[in-house]
Amino acid sequence: MSYCRQEGKDRIIFATKEDHETPSSAELVADDPDDPYEEQGLILPNGDINWNCPCLGGMASGPCGEQFKSAFSCFHYSTEEIKGSDCVDQFRAMQECMQKYPDLYPQEDENDEKSTKDLEAASMEASAAKEEEKGSS
Predict the structure, then answer these.
(1) How many CA atoms lie within 13 A of 50 on its CB side?
(2) Domain positions in the chain
(3) 63-112, pLDDT tens digit by residue?
(4) Which CATH topology does 58-105 take?
């Protein structure tokens, strides 16, 4: 016999073999590429940064989220000859914040700037992809 029970925030559903013999009647809805809540990647079609992208690993939220957003935005929109060279203060503020929360943001012993370099690499890849899209349009 199938049944359902609630334990705190969890709902536990027990289903019988007979319950699974009946085909599902669920209908799948096609993905809408214009859905603003659909995953769009790091850079949205309008050129803005998608702070909800799972590729950011949750860095845009948490105790240093604002510092991360400031540093990443500065780098992304930087027009300096050496991209991001005008963002040193923002990256320093982000690094100082992260050092206050070593459990959330563990530091690499070999290279303390690893997260910054990963961030720069992700932004460069996104910029290159965007330029490639413009070229193929």
Answers:
(1) 19
(2) 58-105
(3) 999 999 999 999 999 999 999 999 999 999 999 999 998 888 887 765 54
(4) Helix Hairpins (1.10.287)
Of 119, 36, 50, 110, nearest to 83 by C-alpha is 119
Question: Element (H or E) spanning 20, and its range?
Answer: helix 17-21
DSSP classification of residue 104: T
Joined together, the tokens standing for residue 59 give 């860095």
Convert 54-78 into a string of H (helix), E (strand) and C (coil). Answer: HHHCCCCCCCCHHHHHHHHHHHHHC
Which single residue is written with the structure tokens 């050496």?
82
Amino acid identity, residue 1? M
CB 36 within 8 A of CB 66: no
Burial 106-133 (b: 16+ CB within 10 A, else e): eeeeeeeeebbeebbebbeebeeeeeee
Token pair recorded at residue 101: 């929360």
Q: Which region among 14-28, 60-74, 106-120 has the lowest average model confidence (pLDDT)?
A: 106-120
